[in-house]
Each structure stands twice: as structure tokens, then as C-alpha cells.
Specification:
Blueprint (H helix, E strand, L loop, with lengths): L1 H33 L5 E5 L2 E5 L4 H17 L15 H9 L38 E15 L14 E15 L1 H14 L15 E10 L10 E2 L25 H9 L2 H8 L16 H34 L25 H4 L21 H8 L8 H10 L3 H12 L14 E7 L7 E11 L11 E3 L9 E2 L4 E9 L4 E10 L2 E9 L8 E3 L9 E5 L2 E5 L9 E3 L5 E12 L5 E11 L6 E4 L7 H14 L13 H7 L9 H13 L1
Antiparallel strand pairs: 1-2, 3-4, 4-7, 5-6, 5-8, 8-9, 8-10, 11-12, 12-13, 14-17, 15-16, 18-19, 19-20
Helix pairs in contact: 7-11
Length: 668
């Protein structure tokens, strides 16, 4: 019998448990919710009071009235007290209110960074010249193809391949040095050493750079210099007006000083302010490095190209030898540099460096020298012999199996700020730079630059938001190249027609076309070029010129607009004298032309009678016309510059991203 009962219970145990749980839940619902008194008991002056939820507000109001009566006027009951008013709607309204409209004093994200209101005026003795000088200014001008933004760049609409397209770019890069370690020492004295203990604030002793001020002046037609003008932020700047010069704290936008401090006191922003990433190069052989690195880059590129030529000649010789000595490998050692039994610098895998070399000499000026480098300068830079002073460097490169371009990347890394950089412990001066992407062709400029430190106690020391460094020295003059030139080469006197060569700069390369121009005719026209229609390509439009490119080869433009905007007015015969001693007579023709129909300009026909500027310009363009053309680079294809942007807050690269980009680079 017992066993039968056990088996029945075993078969129905789950149902029994559910029934018991259901009864228990029903009892709790009836006794604790539906029929519960739902009150809270507490002791009030020895009496137990039961209060329901709806009575709590009234009880609080009554207690507050009693306390206030006893405090202000004991024994009186005629005190008027405003009835309690719910603040729920006000609270919800604050939640819906935009952050920009909330009063700044309500925001205290970092209490340690905000000056105590108890600090009296004049506690900190902040000298006017505390920031000190900016030194060793250098300048570099580069003309190349770059990815130009097609819309306004912001943090939400970042600079990328989707928001830019390849186009021509003339850019001036200004670089300078600043002793930030010495600045940290001076700030420490002001905010730590020279004040009482209760006013010491290490947060103020940490430098926060607020802006940099790049200025330029222009050489006028009269040969004098214009007044200094501020250079605007480059089009690639994604931080809007955050880096603009705002000198009075009263002119700050909503949020004031504390919000501006919170924004700037971020290492990402400090890096972008001092060492901006700038433009991505589309030219296969150019990069927009700061001046000192860019010059090393050009020299390394020249060394690599010279080594490639030597290797190519050696390989041809080796092939000839192999044809005579079947089965034997007799390729000689073709290293450009002295060897020590290890692999020479010229024999490193070219696949590893393909796509990251740059074009040397294209519009680059060393310290503001002449726009068009002469032939001797080119030879000395790109084909120089190995000097005695170079042997140690080259020997070390061979022993360590590194390339000249790796040396450039290493030097670039040395000057970069990372998240691990401690300004107070920097043994070398801080290198910072700025861009001017608003230069105009055929104009000449000079530059100067200064740094602006955020005044964290603005309001106590007048309203000066920026503590300025001294301006750097004025740079050498830099002349911006044109993108279109034309040269009167020869004349047909009977027909009064001039043979004019027009040269056009398009996406990193020069093109030319000859035109026969008569009186009243435009100089230049749109020309269609012969292209391989079977080649799969994509079109890019730049300056009214259609360029067809493929991923692995360069394709000539479909059309080139050679219009110069000028037309020929007339041809005149000229007879003048040349030379102080010989006074030789010269007879030649001049082409008269005009851009606006009012101002008439002169150009001698035949290179024998051109000015020195015309001769140099023609020689420069002629050399560039012979240069081998390569496809445009993809956005972000330069591995080293990408690595710099991938540094995390620990200052180290993300290995996954590093190897991913390295594989992409090798595929190029």
C-alpha cells in the first residue's frame, strides 16, 4: 500500500509542487497587496504614526512648518509657508534641455582641474613672456596630387576616401622647434614652487596648447612686402574652429574657459594641433612630410632610384653573361654601398618598399630657394658620389640590412608625439608644423609662426585666453609654381603665326602640346588624346580635365584643357643691344598677348631671347615631361603615416592593423 502511494506521489510530484506554489502566491497577493494596509510606521515624538504613500508629502510639509515656526517665532502659528510644489516637470525639462544651453558652472567633470573660487586674485605670478621663443623655423613647398576634400570635414564627416577626390595641390609646410620641457619647469615654478601650499595646483603646471598661429606676407608687384595675414586652418582639419585664435575669454562660445580646457586637454587633440596628419598624397612618388623629414625623403628616394638603375644595368650584364655561360650564375655584386659580407642595401626586397617611395625635386624648395632647381643641384642630390663622410652611414645600413627609406621613417618616428610622450621629460625640443593650402600660383610668400598656450587662470590675469610664444624668425621667400605655362618657340614671319608650346600640370605630372597661333586667336585649346579603349579604367575629373586610371597602370588623359586664358594680340620686330662690353645688336620678334584685352604683355620668340626665369621654367618642365608616369596611390596607402595614426593611448601600434596594412602595401 505504501509503495503504491509512493508511486502515485512520484508520478504527480510536479503537479503537486505547482499547486503548492500557486496557493502560496495567491496568499501573498491577497494579504500583501490587495488587502494590505500599505502603510509605513515610524516613531514621532514617542508616538507611532502609520503613513500611507499618498500622505508622505503632506506629512513632510507639516513637519517643516512646525520646525520653521519654532525656529523663527516660537509660540506663533501665523507664519506663511508656501505650499509644497512638485518638481517632477522641472526635472524632466532639464533632461530634455540641450547640453549647450546648460550653464557651464553646473558641469564639473574634473573637479581637480577647476580653480577653487576661494583662490584670491594675484596668487599666481604669471609672467607675460612665460611661453618663450619658437626657434629653428624651416619651410618646404610641395606641388603634387593629393586627396582634396569635396565637402567640409568634421568629426562626423571625417577626411577619408569617401569625402575626397584626387586633384592638384600646392602646399607650404612650415616647421619649427619649441623647448616644451623648459616651459614645464617655468609652469612648475609659478603654480607649485612660488605659492603657498593651499594654492598649489599641479593641473595648472601641465601645459595645454590652445592654438598655433601661422602668418604669411606676400610680395607685391611693386617689390614690397604686404602686411602679415593669418593663414586659415587647412581643409583637412576636422576640429572646426576649436584651433582658431580666440584671444579674449569673453569671446568663447557656450561653455567658456572650463569647456575649452576640457576639450583641448586631450592627447588626440594636442597631437593633431601640434603635428597634424594633413593631406593624403595621391602622387605615386610624393609625401607631405614636415620639411626636415621631406628632404631626407627626397634624398633617400634618389638613392633608391639610383640603386635601381645600377641593379637594372647589372641584371642586363648578368643576362648577357648567362647566355654565354649556360648553367652558371655569374651576376656580380651590384650593391651601391660598401659591403661587409652581408646583403647590400640595394638588394632588399623591392616589393616591401613599392608604393612608399616619393618623387624628389618636384617643386620642392630647400629653405625657400628658387622654385625651379637647376640641373647641377639635381645631379648633386640624385646622383651624388659617395663621400668620405657618408661611409659610416652606408656601412651601418648594410650591416643592419636597412634601406635609406627606413632611415627616413625612423627619423620621422623620433619626432612624433605619442600618448606616452611626457612633455616635462622631453630631452629634445618639440617639433611642430602647420600647413598653408591656400597659396596661389606664381606668387611669392614669407612665413612666421608662433605657439599659443591656454591660460588656465584667464579671468584672474586679465581676460587673455592665450599666452603667446614669440614669433619665429621670418622664413626665406618661397615662390609658388604655376600649373600652366606657355613658351613662344618659333615664328612664321610671312603668316605672322607663332608656334607656342603650352604645358599643363595634371595630378602630379606635366603634359605639353604645340599650337600655331595667329593674331586674335586664343593660346591653347582642349585636346583629345589617344587612349586604349580596351583598358578597363575609371574616370576622374580635375580642373576640367578627364583622367583615366587603373589599379595597376597609368593611363594617359582622355582630354586635356590647354586653354591659358590669353590670346595673341600681335607680333612685333625688336632690335636692341646686349652686353655692357660688346654691345651686340639683337634682332628678334616678340609675341604680344593679353589676358583681359587691356594689359598687353610681351614674350620673346625663340629661347635665345627668353628671360632667365623663362629659361629655368622651361628647363624644369622639360625634365618633368620626361619622367615616367605611375598610377595614383589609393587613399591611405602610405604605411608609415598610417602607423602613426594607429597609435593607441599606450603609444603602441595595434599589431592586427599593422600587419593588415603591411599585407595591403605588399600587394601594391
Amino acid at each position: 500500500m505504501i509503495r503504491k502511494i509512493g508511486r502515485v506521489l512520484e508520478d504527480h510530484i510536479e503537479k503537486i509542487v505547482l499547486i503548492v506554489v500557486g496557493i502560496l502566491c495567491t496568499w501573498l497577493l491577497m494579504t500583501r497587496v490587495i488587502f494590505s494596509p500599505n502603510v509605513v510606521s515610524y516613531n514621532n515624538e514617542g508616538k507611532t504614526v502609520n503613513v500611507k504613500p499618498g500622505e508622505i508629502d503632506s506629512l513632510i510639509e507639516t513637519e517643516a512648518r512646525n520646525v520653521l515656526q519654532q525656529k523663527q517665532n516660537p509660540g506663533s502659528s501665523n507664519i506663511k509657508i508656501e505650499p509644497y510644489k512638485s518638481r517632477t516637470s522641472d526635472f524632466l525639462a532639464l533632461l530634455e534641455q540641450p547640453v549647450s544651453n546648460i550653464s557651464t558652472p553646473l558641469i564639473t567633470l574634473n573637479p581637480n582641474s577647476i580653480q577653487s573660487p576661494d583662490v584670491p586674485t594675484g596668487v599666481y605670478n604669471l609672467p607675460d613672456d612665460i611661453v618663450g621663443p619658437v626657434q629653428n623655423v624651416e619651410i618646404e613647398y610641395i606641388q603634387a596630387a593629393a586627396y582634396i576634400p569635396t565637402s567640409t570635414i568634421t568629426l562626423e564627416n571625417s577626411y577619408s576616401e569617401d569625402t575626397s577626390e584626387p586633384n592638384n595641390l600646392d602646399i607650404v609646410i612650415v616647421e619649427a622647434e619649441y623647448d616644451v620641457s623648459e616651459l614645464c619647469d617655468r609652469l612648475y615654478e609659478v603654480f607649485i614652487d612660488d605659492v603657498a601650499l593651499e594654492f598649489r595646483d599641479p593641473c595648472f603646471a601641465k601645459p595645454i596648447f590652445a592654438t598655433k598661429n601661422l602668418q604669411r606676407r606676400e610680395l607685391t608687384d611693386k617689390g614690397t612686402w604686404s602686411s602679415w595675414q593669418n593663414v586659415p586652418q587647412p581643409k583637412t582639419n576636422s576640429y572646426g574652429d576649436l584651433f582658431d585664435v580666440v584671444e579674449d575669454v569673453k569671446n568663447l562660445p557656450a561653455g567658456g574657459l572650463e569647456l575649452r580646457k576640457l576639450q583641448l586637454d586631450d592627447r588626440d587633440i594636442q597631437i593633431e594641433l601640434l603635428q597634424p596628419q594633413g593631406y593624403q598624397s595621391a602622387s605615386a612618388k610624393e609625401e607631405f612630410y614636415p620639411p626636415r623629414i621631406h628632404r631626407m625623403y627626397l634624398d633617400a628616394l634618389a638613392d633608391e632610384e639610383r640603386q635601381e638603375r645600377i641593379d637594372a644595368r647589372a641584371e642586363e650584364n648578368s643576362d648577357r653573361t648567362d647566355s654565354r655561360r649556360a648553367g652558371r650564375s655569374t651576376r656580380p655584386n651590384t650593391n651601391l654601398y660598401p659591403t661587409t659580407g652581408t646583403q647590400g642595401v640595394g638588394n632588399y626586397d623591392t616589393q616591401q618598399t613599392r608604393g612608399r617611395r616619393g618623387r624628389g625635386g618636384r617643386g620642392s624648395t630647400r629653405g625657400g630657394l628658387a622654385t625651379y632647381p637647376d640641373t647641377a643641384t639635381d645631379r648633386s642630390r640624385s646622383g651624388r658620389d659617395i663621400g668620405v663622410g657618408d661611409l659610416d652611414t652606408y656601412t651601418r645600413q648594410v650591416e643592419e640590412n636597412i634601406s635609406p627609406m627606413d632611415e627616413v621613417y625612423d627619423e620621422y618616428d623620433k619626432i612624433l608625439i605619442t600618448f606616452e610622450t611626457d612633455f616635462a621629460k622631453m630631452s629634445e625640443p618639440l617639433v611642430f608644423w602647420a600647413y598653408d593650402d591656400t597659396v596661389e600660383p606664381l606668387k611669392t610668400y614669407q612665413y612666421r609662426i608662433r605657439l599659443g598656450l591656454l591660460n588656465q587662470i584667464a579671468g584672474e590675469k586679465a581676460n587673455d585666453l592665450i599666452l603667446w610664444s614669440e614669433f619665429s624668425d621670418t622664413t626665406e621667400a618661397v615662390e609658388i609654381q604655376g600649373r600652366t605655362y606657355f613658351f613662344a618657340k618659333s615664328i612664321k614671319e610671312a603668316a605672322k603665326t607663332i608656334n607656342v608650346t603650352v604645358c599643363k600640370y595634371i595630378l602630379g605630372y606635366w603634359y605639353s602640346e604645340d599650337f600655331s597661333v595667329s593674331q586674335g586667336e586664343a593660346i591653347g585649346n582642349v585636346v583629345e588624346t589617344e587612349t586604349d579603349e580596351e583598358t578597363e579604367s575609371r574616370s576622374r575629373i580635375t580642373d576640367e580635365t578627364t583622367i583615366r586610371t587603373t589599379d595597376d597602370e597609368f593611363v594617359e588623359p582622355e582630354t586635356i584643357d590647354y586653354n591659358t586664358g590669353a590670346f595673341m594680340v600681335d607680333v612685333v620686330a625688336v632690335n636692341d643691344w646686349e652686353g655692357r662690353d660688346t654691345l651686340d645688336s639683337r634682332n628678334y620678334h616678340e609675341m604680344l598677348y593679353s589676358f583681359d584685352g587691356i594689359n598687353i604683355e610681351h614674350m620673346p620668340v625663340n629661347s635665345r631671347y627668353w628671360s632667365q626665369d623663362m629659361v629655368r621654367a622651361n628647363a624644369y618642365v622639360s625634365r618633368q615631361l620626361r619622367e615616367e608616369k605611375e598610377p595614383l596611390k589609393d587613399f591611405g596607402s602610405n604605411t608609415r603615416r598610417q602607423q602613426s595614426s594607429l597609435r593607441g593611448r599606450d603609444g603602441r601600434y595595434n599589431p592586427d592593423d599593422y600587419y593588415r596594412m603591411d599585407e595591403q602595401q605588399n600587394r601594391r
